[in-house]
Every structure is written in structure tokens, then in C-alpha cells.
Amino acid sequence: VQLVESGGGSVQTGGSLKLACSTSERVYVRHCMAWFRQAPGKEREGVATFCPVGKNSYYSDSVKGRFTISQDNAKNTRYLQMDTLKPEDTAMYYCATNGALWAVDPLRPDEYKYWGQGTQVTVS
């Protein structure tokens, strides 16, 4: 399973970015997919998860109301729209999928088996 993130970059405080995660054809569009981030010296943090079955979305408290997770099945791509960005959002962002239709703990990294290489987001 191949996951490829894109869309990272540098932005000023209050700005927006939209990350994309392109997946290989083997990734079933109904599987849960999540976005994580990791800043230097910090643990990997679950940011948002979308499980298409049941259309359930989960967000960390730190991004709730500012970030939106979505997917385009036709393009086999999932997105993370990030608005009102803050310096504390600066991190490497990763997409991941657990290869399952649901998740026990949707924002826990241990749930996820397949990971992308990450894309850097810097907010100043």
C-alpha cells in the first residue's frame, strides 16, 4: 500500500493549506484514513480521522473547528483542509490507513499499519 502526501509548505499565521494523500489502488476507499503530525522532540499526534463507513470524522481538540478531513473516491485521494493556522501547527504531517472499516481508537498511531513519507508544514 503506497500513500503519498503533498501540499505542505510555509504559511503565515492565520493562513490556510490543503494537504492531499494519494493512495494506491489497493487501498479500499472504505477504510479509515487518518492524518498525524509530529513536531521535533514531540510524540506523533493524531490530528483527524475519517472512517467512510458510518461517515465518522474524528478530530483532536487542538484542531477541531479549524481542520477538515475529506476524500475524493474518484481520485483515490484524501485531504486535510487546514484553516486559521497557528505556529503550534508546525510539524511534519503524515497520512495513514489502518486497512479496516472502523477504528478502536481513531487518533492513536498504533492503530495504523500503512504510512506515507510525510509533508512539512511550517507556520510563522
What does this structure look like?
It is a single chain. With 124 residues, the protein is mainly β. The strands form two sheets. Strands 2, 4, 5, 6, 9, 10 and 11 form a seven-stranded mixed β-sheet that branches. Strands 1-3-8-7 form a four-stranded antiparallel β-sheet, with no helix packed on it. Strand 5 (45-51) and strand 6 form a beta hairpin. The chain has strands at 3-6, 9-11, 17-23, 33-38, 45-51, 56-59, 67-72, 77-82, 91-97, 114-115, 119-123. The chain has no helices and eleven strands.
Provide a quick synopsis of the model.
This protein has 124 residues and is mostly beta strands.
Helix/strand order: EEEEEEEEEEE
Number of helices: 0
Rg, Cα atoms, Å: 13 Å
The end-to-end distance, rounded to whole angstroms, is 34 Å
Task: Catalogue the unreliable spans.
Answer: none
Number of strands: 11
Q: On the 0-100 scale, what is the average pLDDT?
A: 94
* Shape, principal axes of CA atoms: globular
Main β-sheet, in a few words? 7 strands, mixed
The percent range for helix content is under 10%
Instruction: Provide the β-strand percentage band.
Output: over 45%
Structural class: mainly beta
Outline the fold blueprint.
Blueprint: E1 3-6, E2 9-11, E3 17-23, E4 33-38, E5 45-51, E6 56-59, E7 67-72, E8 77-82, E9 91-97, E10 114-115, E11 119-123
What key attributes describe this structure?
mainly beta; 4-stranded antiparallel sheet; 124 residues
